[in-house]
Write a structure and sequence with these properties.
Length: 121
């Protein structure tokens, strides 16, 4: 019976330490984030998209994780074979070729993305 309070105390101690570790990981992640100021924009024609949320979300996640991408706009139209995706990025941080490569490898190469326009902003 005397061991029960000790078990609760240990559980409480370890659970509190776990939340501290999670908070520290979140802080480190925030520190590593470099602000992106887009100076260029790419328009892509993309085949292989089946939805706005899942496909668009995958694209946003992968491109933002690569660094240098400020914004990804997906213009999804139901039952349309080719969709338009616009990527605003910092050309000093990531190249157009790298962005294109990432789009073409997402979800085991689900998408076929081709640059249709490139401009400075």
């Amino acid at each position: 019976m005397k061991t029960i309070p000790y078990i609760f105390a240990l559980c409480f101690l370890f659970s509190c330490q776990g939340s501290d570790v999670q908070e520290k990981k979140t802080e480190l992640k925030k520190e590593k984030t470099i602000p992106v100021h887009a100076n260029a924009q790419l328009d892509f024609s993309v085949e292989g998209m089946v939805c706005q949320m899942g496909c668009g979300g995958s694209m946003r996640k992968e491109l933002k994780n690569a660094g240098g991408v400020e914004r990804v706009d997906v213009n999804f139209v139901e039952d349309q074979k080719i969709q338009k995706v616009t990527v605003s990025y910092d050309s000093l941080m990531i190249s157009a070729e790298k962005i294109s490569s990432i789009l073409n490898t997402i979800n085991d190469k689900q998408f076929t993305a081709k640059i249709i326009a490139k401009k400075s902003i």
